[in-house]
Design a protein that fits this description.
This is Small CPxCG-related zinc finger protein. With 72 residues, the protein is α+β, with helices and mostly antiparallel strands.
């Protein structure tokens, strides 16, 4: 058994990334694994920015109104 760090490619850009630098992003729904990605630090930072933009902002409205919600 070797103690040498393994190097596998980043799933986003394909650049080799050592285990010590790699980040793993897992998407699970109801405890079922949907997707797993191994990312280099730069691609991980890009992923975090996309996540914050898409999931954190909602409609992008600053007034807090819920004009997009329709209630019957």
């Amino acid at each position: 058994m070797s103690d040498a760090p393994t190097t596998e490619p980043c799933d986003a850009c394909g650049e080799p990334t050592t285990d010590a630098l790699a980040r793993t992003v897992r998407l699970s729904v109801d405890r079922a694994n949907i997707d797993t990605q191994r990312l280099c630090p730069e691609c991980f930072a890009d992923w975090i920015q996309r996540y914050q933009a898409e999931m954190g902002g909602g409609t992008g409205r600053e007034d807090g109104s819920d004009s997009e919600i329709i209630v019957d």
